[in-house]
Design a protein that fits this description.
The chain has 153 residues and is an all-alpha fold. It has seven helices and no strands. It has helices spanning 2-6, 19-34, 36-55, 62-87, 95-112, 118-141, 149-152. Helix 5 packs antiparallel against helix 6. The longest helix is centred in the middle third of the chain and has 26 residues, at 62-87. The protein is flat and about 55 Å long.
């Protein structure tokens, strides 16, 4: 058996491995070096999840993971909505207020009308968001509530 091992060629670098494996590993390592900040954040999130799972066994249950994913969906939808704003080099800080008010009004409506179908409730929430977004867009477009440059000086 030792004769068979001694006849194997020595591998001195990643590229001497089979070409697909060596080049893939090299590309992954190069990408990790270029994106070190993002990789560090991902590692930190994984470590936090591991520590939370060790300290709180209920953290790793499917119900908790589904709840975390559901709450993350709201932020994901808000982020997707902000893409156009950011791409046009603008900023919109009202999105949190709009989401909060829509959530409050929807929850209030659901608590007062428990037999209301979920589809109707969702459509009302969307309508509230659309109206608030339109009012905000018109206010920004007309520069309502914004001091002109001459007034600030």
């Amino acid at each position: 058996m030792s004769d068979a091992i001694s006849k194997l060629p020595a591998v001195g670098s990643l590229e001497q491995l089979s070409p697909p494996v060596g080049s893939l590993l090299s590309r992954v390592l190069a990408s990790a070096r270029r994106n070190s900040r993002e990789l560090a954040l991902a590692v930190i999130v994984v470590l936090i999840c591991l520590v939370a799972s060790l300290l709180l066994p209920s953290f790793a249950h499917l119900d908790n993971i589904v709840g975390l994913a559901a709450s993350g969906c709201i932020l994901l939808l808000a982020a997707v909505g902000q893409v156009g704003v950011v791409l046009t080099k603008n900023i919109d800080l009202s999105i949190g207020s709009v989401i909060g008010l829509c959530g409050y009004l929807t929850a209030d409506m659901m608590s007062k009308n428990p037999n209301l179908p979920l589809l109707v409730t969702a459509l009302v929430a969307i309508a509230i968001g659309v109206v608030m977004g339109a009012v905000n867009g018109v206010a920004v477009g007309l520069q309502i509530g914004r001091a002109s440059c001459r007034e600030r000086v």
